[in-house]
Design goal:
A: ABC transporter involved in vitamin B12 uptake, BtuC, two-stranded antiparallel sheet
Chain lengths: ~300, ~325
């Protein structure tokens, strides 16, 4: 029974990782760039959500869980805009500058975002208003308990991920995205506005990441400015585990990482859960060098 | 700006002996009028130049993404400290062991993952850096002192003279640094160095020309890691307190930025990169909390303005800027 409980908790955490991993993997797909700033965009989602929610609750003068809904929209839009801004300023001028320069630029953008958060909000732990999230739960047989918040997290994550998957597979823009991730030049020849598609990717990825930040902060109740780095690295590992550039891979990798972590901390020791996760990542990459669902890339000739 | 740099670079590429002697003399005289704080800053600059040069072998020459370099720096520091604390071996005698342990781990960790492509290699090195940090925090075998690390490490003793003042540590660092720079310079122009660059530019072509790419890449990792271990041991000797934070991601990022900001694969570039990433932020402590933000802005702006780095090697500059920008003098084309 403990195993089932651990799996449920693992899937919940896995859903967070998967949402953030999608941002890494989409950007990698179109730019072949590890967007180190993505974890910090995610963290900004948590901070902006806190500001928005506090303002809205002060305005309404009562505590209502429904206030979260408009805040979700606000956070999604504003983090997406920050993402597009970063792409425009820090990444677009470096499209042709080799592989190292954009990595430094991404790290620089991450420094800026993290430092801004620390200066604007302070280095202390921030807490979401109490009583805003539903606390009930459903008790299944054998002492297994599923919290209402866990159900909400899972439903929202799966809706977002399913929506994204359909968007990428079924719409014209999604098709264009897949084309751009294969080859910029040929896409341009086919009449695709590559810059616009990349901008759209930077709307969707950080938008999802921002919402994930809000949900994570609501789920745990409190956070500080290291959230972006802690979750960012984990989500990045999830993306690599599944095969970076591959959207179902990011979802699979996120879930797997969440489950490995909770099982590791439940059955081995909480102190060693991260080490277990990293070692499993290394082992996976030794046997499948491009991740679980990653395609084999032919060596260039 | 560019014209001045080009002229300076030309002056350097002549490499007359007096240039090098002059620089060493300058490095010896530089700390004399300074207070202890600035001498420590100088020492720190030297330390990171050494780390930058060691990472330069991996990132700059062989073109392998290594974002976990701080792990080997930490391994070197811990090896020295443990040998010193438990077996009372004088610190300077532990240096070979630190180098050996760091190089051995460099071999063990990279051997199975060498076939990974660029970004996958990058994440594995990040993961390894974190594993080392967490293992040190979790106090494996009860000897690493947990999150607090190790303290009361002996200072280095040279011919019965204990190095206490920052200036003596600076001179010790300078000795190792001169050796490092000489070795790095010789390595760059050696058969192995040319093999690294070949692998970086085109691995398949390099293999077709008979270069054992696996062995060459492995050598880059082993040499770079061992060198970082040496820097770690010198750190342990000066600071005498070490903690798992030596292996944190931020340290690896700083080292990585030193190599790329200054100019990938170039020795003067490492100096410039260290000044930008370590010395100036250290001196701009008054900016306090906003320091990181300014550092980030500087990194983005630098990369947009000069994606090849501030003082790149000619090869890398041509690669990014294209050959047409600057006609090469025929005599220099062979290097």
């Amino acid at each position: 029974m403990q195993l089932i409980q651990q799996l449920i908790n693992g899937v919940t955490i896995g859903a967070f990782y998967a949402l953030v991993a999608l941002g890494y993997t989409m950007v990698y797909g179109v730019l072949k760039l590890i967007n180190f700033a993505h974890g910090d965009l995610f963290m900004w989602g948590a901070y902006l959500g806190l500001t928005g929610l506090s303002a809205l609750l002060a305005l309404l003068a009562q505590t209502s869980a429904w206030a979260i809904l408009p805040v979700v929209i606000i956070v999604m839009v504003s983090v997406a805009l920050i993402g597009v801004l970063i792409e425009r300023v820090a990444y677009r001028p470096l499209r042709t500058a080799g592989r190292l320069a954009p990595v430094i630029s991404a790290l620089g953008a991450a420094f800026i975002l993290e430092s801004l958060a620390r200066n604007v909000y302070g280095a202390s732990w921030k807490t979401y208003p109490a009583g805003i999230t539903p606390t009930g739960g459903i008790t299944l047989g054998g002492g297994v308990r599923v919290g209402v918040m866990q159900i909400i997290v899972l439903v929202v994550s799966f809706l977002l991920m399913g929506g994204l998957y359909l968007f990428v597979q079924r719409t014209r823009i999604g098709t264009a995205m897949r084309a751009v991730s294969l080859d910029h030049d040929v896409s341009r020849l086919m009449g695709i506005d590559v810059d616009r598609i990349i901008a759209i990717v930077f709307l969707i990825g950080p938008g999802l990441g921002g919402v994930a930040g809000l949900i994570v902060a609501l789920y745990y109740g409190s956070f500080d400015f290291t959230l972006g780095w802690v979750f960012g690295l984990k989500a990045f590992i999830a993306a690599i585990m599944g095969g970076i550039g591959n959207i179902p891979g990011a979802m699979l990798g996120g879930m797997l990482l969440g489950i490995i972590e909770t099982l590791g901390s439940g059955y081995v020791s909480p102190q060693w859960k991260d080490v277990i996760a990293y070692v499993i990542l290394i082992v996976i990459l030794i046997f499948r060098p491009t991740g679980l669902l990653g395609e084999r890339v032919a060596e260039k000739l | 700006m560019t014209g001045l740099l080009t002229r300076l670079r030309k002056a350097f590429s002549l490499r007359p002996l007096w240039w090098q002697v002059g620089l060493v003399v300058l490095a010896i005289l530089l700390p004399l009028p300074m207070g202890d704080y600035y001498r420590s800053v100088l020492w720190r600059t030297g330390l990171y130049i050494m780390l930058g040069l060691s990472l330069n072998i991996i990132v700059g020459h062989a073109g392998l993404f290594q974002l976990g370099h701080a792990a080997f720096y930490a391994l070197g520091a811990y090896t020295s400290a443990l040998l010193n604390l438990h077996f009372h071996i004088p610190l300077l005698l532990t240096l070979p062991a630190s180098v050996a342990v760091a190089a051995l781990f460099g071999y063990l960790i990279t051997r199975p993952i060498l076939h990974l492509r660029g970004d996958y290699l990058c994440i594995v090195t990040i993961a390894f850096g974190e594993v080392v940090r967490l293992v040190l925090v979790n106090n494996l075998f009860g000897i690493t002192g947990g999150a607090n690390g190790l303290c009361a490490i002996d200072r280095p003793v040279l011919f019965g003279f204990e190095l206490r003042q920052p200036i003596y540590h600076y001179y010790l660092m300078l000795i190792f640094l001169v050796i490092t720079i000489f070795a790095a310079w010789r390595l760059e122009n050696s058969r192995l160095g040319r093999a690294w660059m070949y692998v970086r530019e085109d691995e398949v072509a390099a293999e077709a020309m008979g270069i054992d790419t696996t062995r060459v890449k492995l050598l880059a990792f082993v040499l770079g890691s061992g060198w970082a271990g040496l820097a770690g041991a010198l750190y342990a000797g000066k600071i005498t307190v070490i903690s798992p934070d030596l292996s944190k991601f931020m340290e690896s990022v700083v080292m990585f930025c030193i190599v790329v900001l200054g100019g990938t694969g170039s020795i003067p570039g490492i100096f410039v990169g260290t000044l930008g990433m370590v010395t100036l932020p250290e001196l701009s402590r008054p900016l306090k909390a906003w320091r990181d933000a300014w550092l980030g802005v500087a990194m983005v702006v630098m990369m947009i303005a000069r994606p090849e780095g501030l003082w790149p090697s000619r090869r890398v500059r041509l690669e990014i800027r294209g050959a047409k920008e600057e006609a090469l003098p025929a005599s220099a084309a062979g290097s």
